[in-house]
What we know:
Layout: H1 16-38, H2 40-51, H3 60-68, H4 79-102
Helix pairs in contact: 1-2, 1-4
Amino acid sequence: xxxxxxxxxxxxxxxxxxxxxxxxxxxxxxxxxxxxxxxxxxxxxxxxxxxxxxxxxxxxxxxxxxxxxxxxxxxxxxxxxxxxxxxxxxxxxxxxxxxxxxx
Length: 103
C-alpha cells in the first residue's frame, strides 16, 4: 500500500452570496479604518452596527479578524499615506472576489 492512497482533494467554489458578503465586509472594514483615524468614538459605533452584521461569527478566523479591528481605535497614524495604501490593497482584494464571482 502506498502512502499517497490515503488522501482526497475536494474543490468547492464559494457561493455568490458569500463573495458578496465578503466584499461588503472589506468595503466596510476600510470605511471603519478611515473613520477610526479621525473619530474613534464614531468608529466604535460603526464597528458595532454596520461591520458586525457582516461577520460570520461561527468562523473562528473571521471572528478573530473582526475582534482585532478594535486595535485600530488605539493607533494614531498619518491618514493620507496609509489610506492610499489601504485603499489599493482593498481594491485588489475586491477585484479578486468579483473575478471569482463573475467567472
